[in-house]
Design a protein that fits this description.
This protein is an alpha+beta fold. Among the domains are: 8-108 and 479-696, no CATH class; 169-323, Beta Barrel (Lipocalin). Helices cover 33% and strands 30% of the residues. The protein contains 13 helices and 34 strands. It has a five-stranded mixed β-sheet, with no helix packed on it. A four-stranded antiparallel β-sheet has the order 1-31-30-29, with no helix packed on it. Strand 13 (236-241) and strand 14 form a beta hairpin. The radius of gyration is 32 Å and the shape is elongated.
């Protein structure tokens, strides 16, 4: 192979022009990505984005395509190749021209949401109940007796659903109320009295004392380390004490308000109940406990077995558990937003447990009490690094369809992820405050106007609720949007380009088609796979490219076939303004035997120089790095995703620069090893600067 002597000055304009088209193709893909995102146009569906077998399928299709082209060329069936590729190019053009026309012509801007009122309530906020209700309490001294007024409130309603007064007791005058909601009731404990109220009407169902008096009239706790929280089941009261132990006290229908000790278990060492975030009784057998660093579901057993060794108590049985070094911040239990049927038609009682963390992760468990596997991690809802921090998670049914959505309140805003596809449909600002709850609720006026209110409650010693109206104009466009005029314009533009490509295949026509085709393929595949799988795809393609160029050399034959048939699925960077492609017919093998003024042409998947008049780049060299850029924006998202995408792009440009160094010296190189390698390195650097090892955590399966 001849040496060009490293004449970089003459080739520099072509190199810069090629780099510009490289970047322009990827930026165009970024511009049309929202159309694909709204439409949910993943090639293998949402679940397929993290499944390795589909990457294998893509590689197999590349091998089959290459083999088919070479076989047809061998048997002189060039007309099949030519018109087959032209048809593929036309379809690929539609994948970019139609979305581009919609992005330019269709106004999908949304009306900004604004809070319209703010109301401070002089009461203690206790906990959320269901989708749109919550409990609060006020304390008063009535004739020398401390009383707690418990109210079940509904966002959007002025009056409480019910109000109940329960005694606070004199033994622990300054203690707070700790509530544990259950399916039909709520247990309230203040370290002295354990009281259970019906959630239906607020009826006081039972009262148990957490203390007793000795002979001298002194108050003694029935548990030396005190009653931190309690939950009542059908035949027992379960109490967790200050030493992180779980006690079962049997109760009896014939002896109301009497309980007797049955058994004691030790909680996991990480479950420090003094730092509990929320606790919920899922059923008579399952207690969900979320503390600052640890969350899990405890199996509520009736008896404790014998203990061996130095342990005093048998450990509780944990059915599912999770840790967070940053700390858990929020919890909700509700109907699963990825369920296949509506709530009314559900026969399995399936629920979803959703947790938010202080470093922006969302963790989800499915809860199906009627199935053999009661608890399981729900990877379809779990999200790593969704935001810098998550303050609240909720499972509302905003449109009353029977299907729930996922509402996540971050450190800055509240975002509604719609349905099983988890498409982001609504973003509203959220007020400042460490402890905040964001929920939806309907007022009578909402029903009349077909609107809904959003409520953001900031919890301190009292609580303040900001509210505002949400209507359809505030929602981001979701689903496939195809309007007549943009679609027609996109199709006609693609037809025009194909005609020009056929009758006048000059370099500017080729570049226009190449940039549009490349951007369409980039975004289509980029949104279809998570970054980890894209990197697997890139590594496999780079290995194949190197083998096909250096070892088997069949990539050179493929390039010859394409160029001889005048099928320029590439980008062209001329060095002179009077350059024309239409008179060029030099093949790769011809270039290998040319004089020192010629730079060898390389195959479709490599950066090439066709002659001393222009530099050529196969679309594959743009598509693979571009896929990783788009996948990063799609699946990492937010500011972190954008930063990582830009470091990925910079990394690929560094790889391109190294490639140009070798091409300028006349040394033919397989392009993908350097381009893909640079892009992957840029992704890793960006990930280390932002989300750390979460950059690889996308629940990959086979």
């Amino acid at each position: 192979m001849s040496d060009v002597g490293g004449d970089f000055r003459r080739q520099l304009p072509s190199m810069i022009g090629m780099a510009g088209m490289f970047v322009a193709t990827i930026f165009l893909a970024m511009f049309i990505r929202p159309w694909y995102d709204k439409a949910g146009l993943q090639a293998f569906g949402e679940a397929g984005a993290s499944q390795l077998r589909y990457i294998g399928l893509e590689l197999i299709m590349i091998f089959i395509f290459t083999a088919a082209i070479l076989m047809l060329a061998k048997y002189k069936k060039e007309w099949i190749i030519k018109y087959g590729i032209m048809g593929i190019l036309f379809i690929a053009l539609l994948y970019s021209s139609v979305p581009l026309a919609h992005q330019i012509m269709v106004d999908d801007s949304v009306t900004p949401f604004e809070y319209q009122s703010s109301n401070e309530t002089e009461a203690t906020y206790l906990t959320e109940i269901g989708m749109d209700q919550y409990l609060d309490s006020t304390r008063s001294n009535q004739s020398g007796a401390l009383m707690n007024t418990i109210r079940l409130m509904q966002w959007g309603a002025e009056e409480p659903i019910w109000t109940t007064e329960i005694p606070h007791g004199e033994a622990f005058e300054f203690s707070d109320l700790v509530v544990v909601p259950g399916p039909d009731s709520v247990t309230i404990n203040n370290a002295a009295l354990i009281q259970t109220l019906s959630l239906r009407d607020g009826t006081l169902e039972s009262t148990y004392e957490c203390f007793e008096y000795d002979d001298d009239g002194n108050v003694l706790s029935i548990i030396p380390t005190g009653c931190e929280l309690a939950a009542e089941t059908e035949d027992a009261v379960y109490i967790i004490d200050g030493a992180d132990r779980l006690h079962r006290y049997n109760t009896f229908d014939e002896y109301p308000n009497v309980m007797t000790k049955q058994a004691t278990w030790q909680l996991p060492s990480q479950m420090e109940i003094v730092d509990h975030i929320e606790v919920e009784l899922l059923s008579d057998e399952h207690l969900l406990v979320v503390t600052r660093d640890y969350a899990g579901v405890i199996l509520l057993e009736e008896t404790a077995g014998l203990v061996e060794g130095d342990d005093f108590y048998q450990p509780v049985t944990m059915l599912i558990e999770a840790n967070s070094t940053a700390g858990f911040t929020s919890l909700d239990v509700g109907y699963s937003n990825v369920a296949d049927v509506t709530m009314e038609n559900s026969t399995e009682g399936e629920q979803l447990i959703v947790l938010g963390t202080n470093d922006g992760d969302v963790l989800a468990w499915s809860y199906a009490p009627l199935q053999s596997e009661v608890f399981a991690e729900e990877s379809r809802v779990s999200i790593n690094a969704f935001a810098k921090s998550i303050r609240d998670v909720r499972l509302p049914d905003i449109d009353a369809t029977g299907y729930t959505e996922l509402l996540i309140t971050t450190d800055e805003d509240a975002r509604l992820l719609y349905g099983a596809s988890m498409t982001q449909r609504l973003i509203v600002d959220a007020p400042e405050g460490e402890d905040v709850v964001v929920a939806f609720g309907e007022t009578p006026q909402d029903v009349e106007d077909e609107t809904i209110h959003i409520y953001a409650t900031v919890i301190n010693s009292s609580y303040t609720t900001d509210s505002g109206v949400v209507d359809s104009s505030m929602f981001l466009v979701g689903g496939l949007v195809i309007e007549d005029i943009p679609t027609i314009i996109g199709i006609l533009f693609s037809v025009l380009l194909m005609i020009l490509l056929y009758v006048h295949s000059e370099w500017y026509v080729v570049n226009t088609v190449g940039i549009l085709v490349g951007s369409g393929v980039i975004v289509m595949l980029g949104v279809s796979f998570v970054p980890t799988l894209i990197m697997v795809f890139m590594i496999a393609a780079a290995i194949y490219d190197a083998w096909a160029v250096y070892k088997s050399k069949h990539m050179l034959d493929l390039a010859d076939t394409m160029m001889n048939l005048n099928l320029p699925i590439l980008l062209v960077a001329p060095q002179d303004s009077d350059y024309t492609m239409r008179t060029e017919r030099m093949t790769v093998h011809d270039a290998n035997e040319a004089d020192d003024d010629l730079v060898p042409q390389v195959a479709q998947e490599r950066v090439v120089a066709k002659s001393n008049d222009a530099m050529l780049m196969g679309l594959g060299d743009v598509i693979f790095p571009g896929m990783l850029v788009l996948s990063t924006i799609q699946y990492v998202g937010g500011d972190n995703g954008l930063l990582m995408a830009m470091t990925t792009l910079v990394g690929s440009l560094i790889g391109y620069s190294i490639l140009m160094y070798y091409v300028g010296k006349g040394q033919a190189q397989a392009g993908l090893p350097l381009l893909n390698g640079g892009a992957i390195l840029g992704y890793v650097v960006g990930g280390l600067l932002t989300i750390g090892m979460a950059m690889f955590q996308f629940n990959i399966s086979f």
